[in-house]
Amino acid sequence: MKENHRKAVILLSGGLDSSTTLAIAKQEGYEAYALSFRYGQRHDREILAAQNVAKYFAVKKHIVLDIDLRSFGGSALTDDIPVPKERGIAEIAGDIPVTYVPARNTIFLSFALAWAEVLEAYDIFIGVNALDYSGYPDCRPEYIDAFTKMANLATKAGVGGKTFSIHTPLIRMTKSEIIQKGISLGVDFSLTTTCYDPSPSGDACGTCDACILRLKGFRESGITDPIAYQKKDKS
Known about the structure:
alpha/beta
């Protein structure tokens, strides 16, 4: 008798958080459908990483959608605004940085919700984190709660009695705890990328906010980060 797996849509950026989130979904027995976005970000390195991670975990299907947030700009990731470099941890946590992409998680979750409804998959996974993160407002638990309520009000499935759940398994974890969880689930972090501004060859810069938080997590875990860096922050 064929096992009946529950389906889930997992937002997959190719970073260590979303890769660990995918691993958790697989561990929990979900049939994984991965969704990534080419949204006008500064580089395509994360798309390659997402494709490699999706292949590594043998997801049922991986879709990379093209949307053009560069038409709006307003972020160092989608506009001609310098990426902040060599900031301290306190400074990173002190404000909403220019790497914030306006409404990005709302846009991504809306596409995930649309695909989930078509798949009759009522579980969506996203690797947001409210501890070791850069102050993005769309990573907070109250935002996820609000989106979940909207999802169940705004869909045919929701008004028809089905209930969508947005899973955020990393939301209360430190970066170190996320890395340790990923290692325990067999995540190959050499496949992942986190950098906002990598070199043309794909090496991480080592000094943007995302690299600094990633390297801090690996140091606190006592594990060597397997990806290549142009320069490693030592703070």
